[in-house]
């Protein structure tokens, strides 16, 4: 007669299975929530490319790595239970299953409270409805799966259908992420373009500060070097080339850079096929095309007044 003693392996496998389930379920909900935010933008909620793409990439990464581990662990546990039916009665397994049911119930209640709170605060109705349906779909599927498991209602066929159905939903969700945030190469190109815009903004404000202090715009970018503040003019992070600068006249200057992608709505190289719902007004004047793009900046003397350099007192 085989021993019914719980081994460390049994505890580890069941714990790992539950942990990967939690991470997979949370990541799937987070991913679907971002799709809802993109499909139904809220004018009161500012969304930059990074604020949307970042959570999508995290959720995708978690699903790509963790979800296959969950499927593998589930298959291994099922195979082990078929070979050793007494393991279905292990206390540690039942404790973990009931704990999972408890967590699923808490998630359903908590998320519904949160969603209703946001709805009462003005959350768009369609966003509210879809997010509520996502929470109910994911949490109830987890609840249903383990409730059936406890009641031993799963046959080999129903288990296979359930697992393949879950796999299909996850694969479709991850594929949608690639469609939304594009390829890793384009994501890297976007980040380079984003850094270029940031560099040009910093240089622009240094030029304006130079003019307000000295009454003239610099002849070259080298004039902006300040050993006291430590400011050094940045170079292109990808190519290492210096940014182009030209003094057009006494109050106008031009900055140029070479970009990898065209900007879509507000100075960032948004390569997503889904347009951003809102624009950043501070980036509107940094729109650019692929390749070399120049930005002409006239200084308004009424807005940026010159500060005369104080003359040291004579003894």
From TrEMBL:
> Which Pfam families does the entry link to?
DUF5671
Note the coiled coil stretches, chain numbering. Answer: none
Q: Reply yes or no: does the keyword Nucleotidyltransferase apply.
A: no
UniProt superkingdom: Bacteria
Q: Is Lipoprotein one of the keywords UniProt gives this record?
A: no
| Transmembrane annotation, as ranges | 12-36, 56-74, 95-116, 128-147, 159-182
Record key words, sorted? Membrane, Transmembrane, Transmembrane helix
Domain DUF5671: start-end pairs: 11-145
Q: Please report the name of this protein according to its UniProt entry.
A: DUF5671 domain-containing protein
